[in-house]
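Researcher: Please predict.
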Amino acid sequence: MKHYLRHTCILYLASCILHLVSCGSHDPDSTGGTGDIAFKIDWQNAPTSSKSKISNPTSHIPSYAPIDCTASNVSTVNATVYSSSGSSLATGGPWNCSAHSGSITSVPAGSNRKLTVLGKDSSGNVKYMGEQTGITVEDGKTSPTVTVTATSFVPTAQVITSTGQRHRE
């Protein structure tokens, strides 16, 4: 009887822990349902196929010339949507660099979404990175097109010396 009680308690405790772990993180900005995010990319300081800005007489919003993917060494674009707490909500891509835009579907509806876009070379190394915050996703709708400004990405390494000092290389 004593062993039966011990095993029952252990099983109950394990079940509770499994339930808590499987629930995932809570997204305080979620409103229920899903929507889509459409985006275009403004590649900063990247070689472009023509002028960097194109005037559009019918719009007060500037248009940007497409990136010269070959000269910029960008072959694909990937994107991830995050909640305000930093949890990954949805991913998209890879898209061919020449598309200059993308759309991520089935994003949990809610406010304060962050879209991160990565331009990668053919080996998968990140060459450009950009993000846009404060995006609202509505259930069953596609967001107004979001412009993400992507800048050249140069990773830095943090080195810790034998004396415990940190510096970047």
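Model: Helices lie at 2-22, 69-72.
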